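Workshop exercise sheet. Pairs work together: one partner reads the sequence aloud, the other fills in the structure field after running the prediction. Swap roles for the next sheet.
Pair: D.N. / O.F.
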Amino acid sequence: MDAVPYASVPQDQWDKLVINSPDGWPFALSSWRRLILAVEEWQLQDHSFAVFDGSQMLAVVPMQLDRRSGVLGITGWSGCGPIIAHDVSGKRRDVVRADIVEMIDEAAARLGANAIRFSIPPVTVSAIENGRGVNPFAFCGLEDCSGVAQVIDLSPDEGVLWRGLSETARQTVRKAEKSGITVVQASWPDMLDCYYRVHQETYRRTGVTPHPRSYFHGIAHEMANAGHSVLWAALDQKGAAIAFHNDMQFGIGAWYHTGCSTEAALAFGANYLLFWKSMLGAKTAGRRWYDCGEIFPPSADKKRNGLTLFKTRFGGAPHRYLKAAKEYRPLGEVSAPAPVAHVGPRTLLAGCMNRLRKLARSVRAAA
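Structure field:
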């Protein structure tokens, strides 16, 4: 058994495992890794690695340490979990997963991380086939901190999907269309500057710090060409873009990733028309499931209540959003893990070899 740093794994071999795995999601691809590491403001330090048994690659672990918070997450912010190869199944898959979690736990201790975090996106094959919503990481010594996402089954025809919208959503879609708003699938590179202007306006209007422009530059140039990031634009009567809806698409699933709008777009109801058209676009592209995003139980948080109301107006049903974490100390207690700047991937992974040898014995025993 070998733990191999990302830099020593052929990129096409890494991506092929992600694409074919039931755990696969764009956040585990090499292109996403390049994207987030290029955003200097986020201060992510890469510790990604692959797990081999001889010449067979069993799994990839796209893992970064957020030096601002001290969290060691799969794809930085727990955008997915370890990606296990499609031909590793049954008990063997459980053994591989558990041993990888132990390896990450040991890496977190060496790095002085405050916490580790994973998730399983709700529209991956693994999540859809997990009908009972059992969190596999709960059996690996992690805390189950799952949430709920609103997921739409896109298999019915357009008429059925339309009737699945709430009356408010249907009325607002009609209002936008009567106002002359149109929706087009846009080119990310061509619309990047316009998108970022509207993104800044949206975030400042809602009291949130805008993301760095380099993040969206990465989406436009790393993810869009492969069809993983699909941008929809709402145009006003003069053809000017006033709102955007950015989907993440992969395999059977699509997910509402980012969006932004001007004040005028909100008045016209353009965000409702955008959401509806993006659903149909994902269906046309062959996606079976559409994840509207996380929803929340009613609470005193008006923003969360508003997001939940908006997302549930497009139909679908709640699905369990599997998440797992382990905290070692309160976040913020340690301002910066001292050894981080001096630990390279080979040094970090060298200490995992004993665990990997154990993994080899366990895999053979479970085979």
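Discussion prompt: The chain has two domains: 2-147+322-366, 155-287. What would you look at next?
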